Amino acid sequence: RTLVYDLDTTLPFPCEFHEYITHAIKPHFSWKEKYHRLFRVIPAKTFLDRFSSDRSHMLKADMQWLSPPPTYPCIATSESSNNLPGFIDMTRGSGHGSVMDLNQFCLNFS
């Protein structure tokens, strides 16, 4: 049984993987190939040990905030203050974890 913890949906928290795929990802939509979804799947321990963000992605070109930043400190590790780009890069074989297409993602978790 796979549960999904997604703070960006209105689905139950947590929700069953099948419900998440059906209602949040909606695999029945027909997208052009260049718009096919990819998912970077990272072991939780790796994410918690290695992820860092200095919130620079939340700034406009004029250095004004797009939205007010959280009140808690930035996430940092002893190795990095900002490695977010490597976590969102969908180049297969790079970064942490594995990049999967929708079919691989569903097979992996269902």
UniProtKB/TrEMBL annotation:
The kind of enzyme this is, by top-level EC class, is: hydrolase
Record-linked InterPro entries: N_Gln_amidohydro_ab_roll_sf, NTAQ1, Prot_N_Gln_amidohydro_ab_roll
- Reaction equation(s) it catalyzes: N-terminal L-glutaminyl-[protein] + H2O = N-terminal L-glutamyl-[protein] + NH4(+)
Which chain positions lie within coiled-coil regions? none
Could you list this entry's UniProt keywords, alphabetically sorted.
Answer: Hydrolase
Tell me which domain of life the UniProt entry assigns to the organism this sequence originates from.
Eukaryota
EC annotation from Swiss-Prot or TrEMBL:
3.5.1.122
The protein's job, in short, is:
Mediates the side-chain deamidation of N-terminal glutamine residues to glutamate, an important step in N-end rule pathway of protein degradation. Conversion of the resulting N-terminal glutamine to glutamate renders the protein susceptible to arginylation, polyubiquitination and degradation as specified by the N-end rule. Does not act on substrates with internal or C-terminal glutamine and does not act on non-glutamine residues in any position.
Regarding protein family, the annotation reads: Belongs to the NTAQ1 family.
Q: Which Pfam families match?
A: Nt_Gln_amidase
Q: How does it assemble?
A: Monomer.
- GO molecular-function term, one example from the UniProt record: protein-N-terminal glutamine amidohydrolase activity
The residue ranges of the Protein N-terminal glutamine amidohydrolase alpha beta roll domain are: 2-107
The protein's name is Protein N-terminal glutamine amidohydrolase
What cellular component terms from Gene Ontology apply here? cytosol; nucleus
| Origin species | Capitella teleta (Polychaete worm)
